Amino acid sequence: IRIDPKCAEAYSKRGVSYAILRDRAKAIEDYTQAIKIDPKCAAAYYGRGISYAELGDHSKAVEDYTRAIELHPKSAEAYHDRGRSYAKLDDHKKAIEDYMKAIEFDPNNADFYCNRGVSYAELGDHSKAIEDYTRAIELNPKSASTYFCRGYSYAKLGDHAKAIEDYTRAIEFDPNYAWIYYKRGFSYAKLGDHLKAIADFTQAIEIDPNDKDVYVNRGVSYAKLDDHLKAIEDYTQAIKINPKLARAYVGRGLSYAKLGDHAKAIEDYTQAIEIDPNFANAYVCRGSSHGILGDYSKVSEDFTQTINIVPNNKDAYLVRGSSYYILGDHSKAIEDFTQAIEIDSNYALAYRSRGNSYLALGDHLKANADFARAIEIDPNKCT
Fold first, then answer.
1. H and E: helices and strands count for the chain
2. Average pLDDT of every residue of the chain
3. Burial class (CB within 10 angstroms; exposed 0-12, middle 13-18, buried 19+) of 275
């Protein structure tokens, strides 16, 4: 450059060296200088695009990749990298278009298929994602990340057995990646194998002890195994990591309730509601504990909140109606049971409960009609 300060290639190559040294700012300066000298230097646009992407400025990266493609329209890498920047900008349709062009020019690059699979997955098309991951694995059978991604898509499609197979392969190639153990544990839990789920969650925690989600899910598995003391420990640890984690409070509240401590359960449900006032399940759980403690006025209040959040929850109407029945307000009870029946015309318990309220009001004809309908729907429960 000292000998020939107008040598665009020299600036571009020095930019590459700065980029290798992770000095993206200096790299961009050199690529920019190369472009000033030679506005048709495709390598400089491409290199500057990579540096912008590394700095998280994917809009500028897309601009530079686009210019590089205009100058070199068969660059598979430029299409691929522009696709990655589109993906970072959440424009996965454009990303897929670019990955397709990259594959057209280089059909044997595993990364191109894997990244296209990620964009398909982001768009919810996990079947196409799996096809791409499978092709990527054929080209590179030792990629932990590709096995993980395919496992994730299998899990999203509900095939947790295949997901576990892929997560296991991923662990063989990368045994220190906590997230893979977490996801495999999640799939084991979905299949009802909570012992294996706990083993995987524990392994994930040993690698990364600060992941709140792993503690919550291990707590769920302990609760499923009726080990509520350990479940409470895990939910508590998750809350220490993130005191605003509403679902951890609800999980801990459920375990307290299972242990018979409904006062503590209500405290946790209340805390969850303070964090997230639209957490319908927190109101359901708190209302249930209030019911066990015999406070039916609060039961009706909590299930009213539940209905406000989820207006078509037939069970919420049934429970609120039952609380009105216990409180002696049979007119309101009948309104709620009727609403539950409007949501589900085959809701046997709602007919039986409404029949009881009609009976309490002395309307035997309507009571008998409801009892008959309940028996017709479910003779085992309503005889």
1. 23, 0
2. 94
3. middle
